[in-house]
Amino acid sequence: MTFEIHTHLDPGLWLQCNGGTTAQKRPALFLDRDGVLVEEINYLHTVADLRIIPAATSIVRAANERGIPVVIVTNQSGVGRGYYGWAEFAVVQAALADSFAQDGAHFDMILACAYHTDAEAPYDTPNHPWRKPQPGMLHAAAETLELDLPRSWIVGDSASDIGAGRNAGLAGGVHVATGHGRRDRDKALALATAEFDVRAEASIEGAEQILTLCTA
Fold this sequence. Notes:
The chain is an alpha/beta fold. The protein is built from seven helices and seven strands. Helices cover about 30% and strands about 15% of the residues. The chain has a seven-stranded mixed sheet, sandwiched between helices. The N and C termini lie far apart (about 35 Å).
């Protein structure tokens, strides 16, 4: 597997594209990684600590089978804070992808942002356009894969995940109780509007219902 790090464009951003475009724009399933696909351990950077959340693989595979692009969008302030580097992120991401592939599931794109207000230079940038709740990662994915954002959904365990979906103009977000979900539940639900639907679920397993909405 080849990892594409855009260090020549911006050292704090990661973009890996495994999917392609189609003649017609498609809605996507955007997923936070830590706390949604894998257990939240705070600054995951070793394969030994990688634990996949039950049902995550089956949801991604179901999206794949319906032709819905699956895009990981993850804040990685651990890189910005100097706790680990992109090389460690790459190893963990490769192990995650390989584990999903064994069950017939794949990710079409992975985007990550290392910028944070409290990060070390050159990553000490507040409110970077790619850092959730800013919508930059979602917009970058949409541009590359030609996605239909108004029909897309995001699944996350934090209010910033759901906020990124709203700021990007998605149809809605699913807030899960895994990871930091219990801490952020009220803030996430408060982001709902007439145009942006927010649903509460115990885990990513409950997100299966939105796959039908993406293909409607």
